[in-house]
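User: Run a structure prediction on this.
Assistant: Running it now.
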Amino acid sequence: MLSNVLVVGDGPVAQRLVDRMRHHGFDGAVTLLGTGSATVVTAVDRERHSVLAQVNGAPTTYSYDTLVLAAEARPLIPDVPGLVDSEGRLTAGVVAPGPAAGTVAVAGETAAVLGEGPLAVETAASLAARGVDATLVCATPHPLYTRLGETCSGMLSEQLVRAGVTVLGGRTAVGRLPGRLRLRLDDGTALRADTVVLCAGTAPDIRLARASGLDVHVGTVVDDRLRTSDPRVHAIGDSTAYDGRLADGPHVAWEQAEALAEILVGHAVTYRPSPSALRLRTDVADVATIGSPADLHRPGTRQIGLTDRANRRYVRLALRDERVVAAVLFGLPQAIATIGLLHRRGQRLPSDRLGLLLDLPPGPAPGGESAPVCLCGSVSEQTLLRAWRAGSRTVTALAKTTRATTGCGGCTGSVEELCRVWAGASRQEKEKAS
């Protein structure tokens, strides 16, 4: 077994890896080398199996038996005058958040969020929930337009507006006026914005991998053991490329961390990514996609769906041989879990299609397993209930015993609701017994 593992990166996926290694019994030395302002990794010496870094300005060398690169993707900065200074630094009042929308720090009472992807939606909703006057500016007609389509993305816009977010679709920023705290849009609007939040997408951070002479393509290239072109160096996270594709979504990075943890403790496992999926991490709307947008239009698929604007529900399924190839779902948490499980297993849809689309409770899955509540960790309601009955009666306790909510966090509301339901049922049973 390895005795000295060095992990470059201190983001959630790096911390997840270390946690899972300990869970699987690794008792060697693990060093988590952050990449913040105090620590700057400058080079990897693959011949000497060491990493060179500046720690508080002092040159420091770290040796390794195995090196893990866990670099997070870098935010893309739109080419808009006033967002960066002459040295390429973000100007005052402009921020580019990491993957956790709830951590965005804003100054003042108004904020403009630029972007149309999941992080932009989550960030705008989070700011509005904190009492900030938030405006979402997206170049597409509605946020997530490409993934969700016209109808569903329009319903998402409506929900954001209900939650206090101003949505400006089909608009782009053309300039920032720092002195007046205004953001100019392409239609001539001067939008008040004490803070501008950039959520225009990310780019993989492959600078260290490339400088180290490792193979890079769209990301740092890894095989099914998550090894780079140097067998002593592994890579995980949203800057890695497996089978020619970047990691797609937080659940993929979590899967990579789990797989590599087992690999590093000597288990005979190989990494196989689960199908592409997205679930928004916000209470504003329960939205999920399965497969890529292109999968919804491939030849040979059959489309079925449901649009229920009054009850804010939407489903669009693409089927082949009665199996889900791709899906878009809105406002149907049970169906999201059930269809996601059927898609991952490659199983046919149940005969009660209407019940499925109306979010009625499904019958038991093959093998007695219920649909997962936590998609990142594949934690089912059945597993959560067993843990709850064993004494894990809070979301925090369930997270510790089952790992639910510790991935992207999108299932936190569902787990909270289950805790309330089970606690209420328990009280009723006690009252009846007394």
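The chain is about 25% helix and 25% strand.
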